[in-house]
Amino acid sequence: MNITNLSKIALSALMRNKFRAFLTMLGIIIGVASVIAMLAIGEGSKKSIQQQISSMGSNLVMVMPGSQMMGGVQQGNSSSKALEIRDVTAIREACPSITAVSPEVRGGGQVVAGGNNWPTTFYGGDVNYLDIKKVEIKAGRMFTEQEVNAAAKVCLIGQTVADNLFGNEVDPVGQTIRFRNIPVKVIGLLEEKGENTFGMDQDDLLIGPYTTVQKRILAITHINAILSSAVSEEATTQAVTEITAAMRASHKQAEGEEDDFQIRTQAELVSTFSSISDILTTLLGAISAISLLVGGIGIMNIMYVSVTERTREIGLRMSTGGRGRDILMQFLIESVMLSVIGGIFGIVLGVVASSVIGNLTGWPIAVMPEAVALSFVVCTAIGIFFGWYPARKAANLNPIDALRFE
Amino acid sequence: MNKEIISIKDLRKDFHVGEVTVHALRSVDLTIHEGDFVAIMGTSGSGKSTMLNILGCLDKPSSGSYLLDGTDVSNLSKNELARLRNLKLGFVFQSYNLLPRTSALENVELPLFYNNSVKPRERRERAMAALGAVGLADRVHHMPNQLSGGQQQRVAIARSLVNDPVVILADEATGNLDTRTSYEIMALFQDLNARGKTIVFVTHEPEIAGFTTRNVHFRDGNIVKQHAVENPGSAREMLSTLPVETD
Ligand SMILES: Nc1ncnc2c1ncn2[C@@H]1O[C@H](COP(=O)(O)OP(=O)(O)OP(=O)(O)O)[C@@H](O)[C@H]1O
Ligand SMILES: [Mg+2]
Fold first, then answer.
1. Rounded to the nearest whole angstrom, what is the distance from the C-alpha of residue B225 to the centroid of ligand 1?
2. Which of the listed residues A301, A332, B22, B120 has the most CB atoms within 10 Å of its CB?
3. A chain contacts of residue B163, beta-carbon cutoff 8 Å
4. In terms of pLDDT, which residue wins out, A198 or B236?
């Protein structure tokens, strides 16, 4: 008997028990749909994290002290030295792979304007600080070179701070606020960045000249970090090498001595978080795959029922000349149909579910074509694998035993 | 003498159920020629069905030889046996054994599906012709549950005919039917036989056996008597003598 006829027989057998066939498929439908949705969610969250990280700065390379420093005093026991402005200068002069470099100084404190107050962090940087951190100005202006040199008491204000101090009515630009009791003039309002993936409000900050934060507010001589931009993503590694050399020279470290500073890059962050979300995706995918397996067992179960129910039919087919192979194929095609039709429904459901979840979470949900193709292959395999034993049981029946079965 | 279709020598069949061994057939010799219409008779449990199942290559004998249309059946593989059933044998069962929810036409087409040399068009034509031959030309698209028992048995006979087998094997084919319908079915078999078809027919009703040309009597797995029927009655004539049902 040829495949077309066998398929017709299998299809009409399924149509005879539509509801049962549907229930059997349901296992596969749910399994496939959840595999596709879970992979899409995993992939979407990964992309979202990558976007967030790249929005933190442009090809950012950060230099930090070797271990935690507090008030210029070394807290850990590994070798570490506070960062200073001459390190920034050294990097600026010796590293062709970076486009911009800026010191970063930061301090937390209460900010007051009129009757309102709000706890926030005051970041200090150089004139190119905003470019490195990819922050835009919504209103007003950036501080100037002169203001940096003069440690002018000016700042740019984040939207969250502005909202809490001034509400919607008052334009914050031009106002004077007090940070740790020191009056600072607001010269610009920063564009909103929203929350990052880790739940941190990126608009809850003040940005001013590093000199101001260092001398007037914190009264320290060191800086907290050095931020720089590599010319391109690929140049990041080269930039790290150059910065390391420049820093060691600046810190007069002997050869073989351990670095007394540490360098973090954006690329590193991306790969760290990507691998975390890869693990998550694998985990979710594996859990869904189990439901697919359960669906397969459902098919096997119903195929056994089907073979038993139709034992006399099998006997009749054998008595009219059906060979074992014909019977085997008939039932195998039936189970493959069950799983493949279920798989198609599952793919549709999975794609729909993914896009609904994408809309709800705002993640860039991406249904992977590989996942769809794989589901299809897996469904066919499930049909063959779980259909094989029941079908073989049918094919191996003795004609007379099958005919006499009751 | 016509050619030998079935030739059986010293055929035995034992069934082992637990500790017990049932000797269903003990050393049977039987020859059936082309054009014979043989009734296999005997009491219940005498081995008639066992004999027929072996003749139909549905079951294997414990020992002995069986030549079907010149082929020694005992050494054939499962697939070769299936092919033999497909091409040389036609079965009619007591309980019709039609595929449920499958039209009469498709039921009759079934043996042709397992014969790859028959193309779809020819398959349909031959199935239609077979249904016509059993008088069901107007019921081809009916489902089994839309047909009476007699009509279902006709469909089964059409199915056994469609591949033009060398012999038709029927096990109590009239067992589930009333007298009138039994006669109709027997008339059909007599027509087929008159056109040269070899038929082996199991029954325990002597009246039915009277329509065949030869009777073989079984008892306890042995053939105890076989004889030609002197003047086989005509089922068609008998039908006309039956009182017409009034109610
Ligand atoms: N599959 C089997 N397993 C065990 N014993 C069997 C089997 N088939 C038949 N028998 C035994 O073989 C003997 C002959 O059975 P068979 O079915 O051939 O009788 P029969 O002549 O067809 O009777 P009936 O007229 O009632 O149909 C019986 O004793 C029966 O119990
Ligand atoms: Mg019997």
1. 20
2. A332
3. 321
4. B236
Query: Closest residue of A to B89, CA-based?
Result: A320
Helix (H, G, I), strand (E, B) or coil at A327: helix
Atom of ligand 1 nearest to the CA of A401: 1
Residues A45 and A106 in one domain: no
CATH of the domain at B88: 3.40.50.300
Please indicate, yes or no, if residue B40 is contained in any of the structural domains. yes
Pair of tokens at residue A398: 């003795």
Residue B203: domain span: 35-60+78-240
pLDDT of residue A319 exceeding 60, the answer is yes
Say how many CA atoms lie within 13 Å of B162 toward its Cβ: 34
Partner residue facing B111 (CB), from A321, A324, A400: A321
Which residues surround ligand 1 with Cβ inside 6 Å? B 15, 17, 22, 24, 42, 44-50, 204
Looking at the domain assignment, is residue A59 inside a domain? no
Give the residue whose CA is nearest to atom 27 of ligand 1.
Answer: B44
Range of the domain at A122: 98-229
The percentage of residues in chain B with a pLDDT greater than 90, rounded to a whole number, is 86
Q: What total number of domains does chain B contain?
A: 1
Atom of ligand 1 nearest to the CA of B46: 21
Closest by CA position to A120, among listed A184, A197, A69: A184
**Which chain A residues have a beta carbon less than 8 Å from that of B126?**
none
- The alpha carbons of chain B give a radius of gyration, in whole angstroms, of 18
Residue B185 contacts residue B158 (beta carbons within 8 Å): no
> Pick from B91, B114, B150: which is nearest to A330 by CA?
B114
Q: Which of A200, A229, A258 represents a domain boundary (last residue)?
A: A229
Residues A400 and A322 in one domain: yes
Domain boundary among A203, A229, A255: A229
Report yes or no on B70 lying in a domain. Answer: no
Asked if residue A88 is part of any domain, the answer here is no
Q: Global pTM?
A: 0.76
Q: Is the pLDDT of residue A356 over 60?
A: yes
pLDDT in tens, A7-52: 888 888 888 889 999 999 999 999 999 988 888 888 888 888 878 7
Within 13 Å of residue B210, how many CA atoms lie on the same side as its CB?
A: 12
Compute the half-sphere exposure of residue A323: CA atoms within 13 Å on the CB side of its CA: 15
pLDDT one-digit tens code per residue, B92-135: 999 999 998 899 999 999 999 999 899 999 999 999 999 999 99
Containing A45, the helix (H) or strand (E) segment is helix A18-55
Average pLDDT over all residues of chain A: 88
Q: Residue A70: which pLDDT band, with cuts at 50, 70 and 90?
A: very low
pLDDT score, position B247: 55
Residue A236 falls inside a structural domain: no
